[in-house]
Amino acid sequence: MDTSLYSPCELCPRRCKADRTNGKTGFCGMPAEVIVNKSMIHTGEEPVLGGKGGCGAVFFEGCSLRCIFCQNHRITSLTGKGRSYDEESLAKLFHELASEGAGAIDLVTPMHYAPTVAKAIKRAKETGLKLPVICNCSGYESVSTLKLFDGLVDIYLPDLKYYSSKVSAKYANAPDYFTTACMALDEMFRQVGRFEIDGSTGMMQKGMIVRHMMLPGNLFDSKHIIDYLVSRFGDDIFISLMSQYTPMPHILENEKSPEELRRPLSKDNYEKLCGYLADLGQTNAFIQEMSSSGSLMIPDFN
Hints:
Layout: E1 34-42, E2 55-60, E3 83-85, H1 87-99, E4 104-108, H2 114-126, E5 133-137, H3 143-146, E6 155-158, H4 165-172, H5 177-192, E7 196-197, E8 204-213, H6 219-232, E9 238-242, H7 249-252, H8 267-279, E10 285-286
C-alpha cells in the first residue's frame, strides 16, 4: 500500500499533518490502516439507490467531522471490533457484497482512507465489478482528496449539514464547514454531472444526491442550505431532506449538550422546510416520514 498521503496527513480540510503511518492518529482518530466496522446489505438509502437488492454498505470507522450529535458515533473512534483491509481485500469485499445481491456499493464515511479506497474501487472495477459505487460522506471534504475518486465514484451522496459558521463551530468545531463543503460539492458534481437513471430499473447509475438532516431549532439554517442547493444545482441533482434526527444517549446523558439537541425534531418545522423546498420549484427531491427517527435507521454496529 502506498502510504505517502497518510504522512503527514492532509486528506481532510483539518490538515492535522498526523503521521498515521507510524501509529499516530489525527482528528479522524484513525491510523493509515483501513478499518471497516461492518459490511451489510442495507435497504435504508434513498429509493433510487440499490433497488430490491439494497446497497452493499461498507461502514468505515473514524470520521474527520465528528458532529457532537452523530447517530453513528459508536464507530467514529476505534472500537477494537473492526476488521483491517488493504486495497486487495477491500476490492474482494465489494465483489462479495455484489454476489449477495447488492444493487450498488455504498461506502459510508470513507474519505480519511481515500488513497486506499480509491485503489480498491479501481481494482474491483478492473476485475469485473459492474455496480454503481456510492461515496456517502459528510460534505466536509478537501477537493484534492476528492480528485482521487475522479472516474471511480459513480454517485456522490454527501451531506450539506450547516450554513452558519456559528452552528457548524458549535456542533462540529468546523466554522469553515459551509464554504469548504460548497467547494467539495462543486468538485463532486464536476466529476459525475447531472444524474442518470436506468429506465428499466428506476435506479440511479450516476449523479449526486445531497442530504440535509434537519436539526431541532435550526429551521433558519436549513432554509439557507435549501436556497443554496436549489440555486446552485437545481434539478440536476436530488435533494434529500431527512427528518431522522434522534437525540442519542450520549447527548441526553451529557448535561452540557445543547438544549435544542436534547429534543426530537418538530414535525411542524420539518413540514415547513419541505413546503419551502417545493415552493422553490425543486422537483427532484426526497422526504422522510417522521417515524424515521429513533433507532430504525441506525445499523447494529460491531
